[in-house]
Amino acid sequence: MNQQVLVETRSLTKYYYARRGFLRRKGKDYVKALEDVTFRIYRQETLGVVGESGCGKTTLGRVLLHLVKPTSGRVIFEGQEVIGLNRKEWKERRRELQIVFQNPYLSFNPRFSILRSLSEPLRTHTTMRSAELEDHARQLLEKVGMPPDTIYRYPHEFSGGQLQRIAVARALTLNPKFLVLDEPTSALDVSVQAQILNLLRALQQELNLTYMFISHDLSVVQYISNRIAVMYLGKVVELISTVQLMEGGAVHPYTKALTSAIPEVIEGRKKERLALPKNVPDAARPPSGCSFHPRCPLAMEVCKQEEPRLEEMEEGHWAACHL
Amino acid sequence: MGEVLLHIDDLQVTFRTYAGLVYAVNGMSFEVRRGEIFGLVGESGCGKSVTSLAVQRILPRQSKMTGRILFDGEDLAQKSEAEMGAYRGKRIAMIFQDPSASLNPVFTVGNQMVRIIRFHTGVSREEARKRALKLFEEVTLPDPERIYRTYPHELSGGMQQRAMIAMALASGAELLIADEPTTALDVTIQAQILELLVELRHRQNLAILLITHNLGVVAETCDRVSVAYAGQIVESGPTGAVLRHMKHPYTQGLLAALPDPAQKGKDLLSIPGSVPDGASRIPGCPFHPRCPFVLAVCQEVQPPLLRVSEEDHRAACHLYTTN
Fold it and tell me: Is residue B112 within 8 angstroms of chain A, CB to CB?
């Protein structure tokens, strides 16, 4: 893994406007799905993005892929600004960024054969036809460990794990450089998850891919990522290398709580837990100052008033906390 | 540990489908005692959910069931619909994976509680309301008066699940069946709900049958555990003993497949093949097609569940049957 930057975001922000109340008189309110998100992803690394529901990780993945337009901020891919490209320019770039979603049954058109689903990107971007498309599809399927006759079948005929492999094959159709994986194994059983994770790692090596792996499951993220970005209510609260995180180097109280909340099989002993009180607040009405302060065991006065900035604590380790 | 409350004896459940018979449960046997949390662990298709439905006799019409379901000495498998009324929802309660799908969206939480209480006990509205508020407090819902007046969609997943637990306990259940109660919840909330279940067990001598696919959850909360595969129990015993000295190759495979950050850079050990779909009965040991230690006898003779250590730790595997 070299240190060249592949994807970069600067102050990425996404607000969703929502009307409050039944009648318009209550005025506009907005949900801050992403707030001032800035980070880099280096070539051939896997950046894990972790956080609970409502933290913005899925929105982040979609904004990077241009599936959702940000309210403000920049996304830079291989040095080129991505937001604001015209259709033609974007169509070129599009091939290099792909995505795999959580539920494969919802990401395939049930009326398309696998062949059709896999060849659609190629029809759009190249002049390949018929026999060539079939060959290409079969090769892709082989790469992900699925038999060639898969192309004649339909999504509902496959198990979740199998269909997710096909989803990975589809994402690889145009030889992308960057793959966003949005909770790719959350809907799968443990042993199937293991197979998919092994596959992803092998493909990364073979095809020099860069991954952004989004998940709420910290143990999976720790296993597969080189670095991890922890998100809470639309903001990145910590950015740390996996090695450091595993050595207990987390600084932000939320990261520590997440790590301790994972139920673990440690020889039958009970794990020491940092239980967080209350629930994740409503994203439309985030707390003042540091949005984590109502649940933070170490909250101080300043935390209620001032929002902490994401600062580099030591090389490669960023945290947004007043401590 | 208290006396045996639920005793499942050689339960078999088959479904008639357009594609033929599906053998969902094939000889499931286990016991749950008062005051203990019993874990039933397995992946999709192992028959754990079907078993829980069988206990309450709410299997669909196309099913056929044999075996005994002894609850406090009475065989529920022999009861009529009318007789089951005294058990279902009353002495045996159940909570499901997705609380938002189990709560009626058009009634307030308080209203639903009161209906349940009055249905089972016939007390007045005021008395039912008082009991409802008390139950909300017992499941640590903040501000019970306010919760009483809210609609399910206004509550977070964690709070909805607590409300479900409160409803399940409203009738004075002795056995609580929890089917993947925390799978749909965030990790930090999951921790809270599990702690709540553990506490309730102590307070009310409640027996809890916890169904999950997550070994970590089992390690944290269960006193005893049974591992299910293809509709049968392949390993069982006190949680500590089972997790420390896993005997059955499937259990070992499940644990090995868990992403362990310490395994970074190495492939996860996944179990080859996939879980059987129940369309046919596998001869001999159901796990033999995927077992790394398979012997000739495994393909023909089904291994009995035998003790493998002093602590009532049992496994169904020919590796341990003495020749």
Answer: no
Q: Are B158 and A276 in contact (CB < 8 Å)? A: no
Burial class (CB in 10 A: 0-12, 13-18, 19+), B122: exposed
Backbone angles phi, psi at A161, to 5 degrees: -65, -40
Give the model's confidence band at B312: pLDDT under 50 very low, under 70 low, under 90 confident, else very high.
confident
**Which of B100, B187, B199, B255 to mutate against chain A (most A CBs within 10 Å)?**
B187
pLDDT value of position A249: 85
The full DSSP string for A218-273 is HHHHHHH-SEEEEEETTEEEEEEEHHHHHTT---SHHHHHHHHHS---STTPPPP-
Residues contacting residue A92 through CB under 8 Å, at least 6 positions apart: none
**Per-residue pLDDT tens digits for B25-70:** 999 999 999 999 999 999 888 889 899 999 999 999 889 999 999 9
Q: How far apart are CA B41 and CA B216, in angstroms?
A: 11
Of B156, B188, B219, the CB nearest to A257: B188
CB-facing half-sphere around the CA of B43: CA atoms within 13 A: 23
Phi/psi of residue A235, nearest 5 degrees: -120, 150
Tokens of A211: 């991954």
Q: Look at residue A9 and give its three-state secondary structure.
A: strand
Strand segments (E) across chain A: 5-19, 28-42, 46-50, 72-77, 80-81, 97-100, 178-182, 210-215, 227-232, 235-241, 311-314, 317-319
- DSSP codes joined into one string, B104-124: -TTS-HHHHHHHHHHHHH---
CB A33 within 8 A of CB A56: yes
Residues A268, B44: C-beta atoms closer than 8 Å: no
- Using DSSP, state whether B7 is helix, strand or coil: strand
pLDDT tens readout for residues B163-209: 999 999 888 899 999 998 888 777 778 888 888 998 888 877 899 99
Domain A5-96+179-185+209-263+307-319 adopts which CATH fold?
Answer: Rossmann fold (3.40.50)
CB contact under 8 A, A194 and B261: no
Tell me how far apart the terminal alpha carbons of chain B are, to the nearest angstrom.
Answer: 35
Q: Which two tokens stand for residue A181?
A: 């994986």
Per the CB < 8 Å rule, is B257 touching A258?
Answer: no
Q: Where are the domains of chain A?
A: 5-96+179-185+209-263+307-319
What's the token pair of residue A30? 């907005």
Q: A145-202 pLDDT, tens per residue?
A: 899 888 999 999 998 889 999 999 999 999 999 999 998 988 788 888 888 999 999 9
Q: Is A229 exposed, middle or buried (0-12, 13-18, 19+ CB in 10 A)?
A: buried
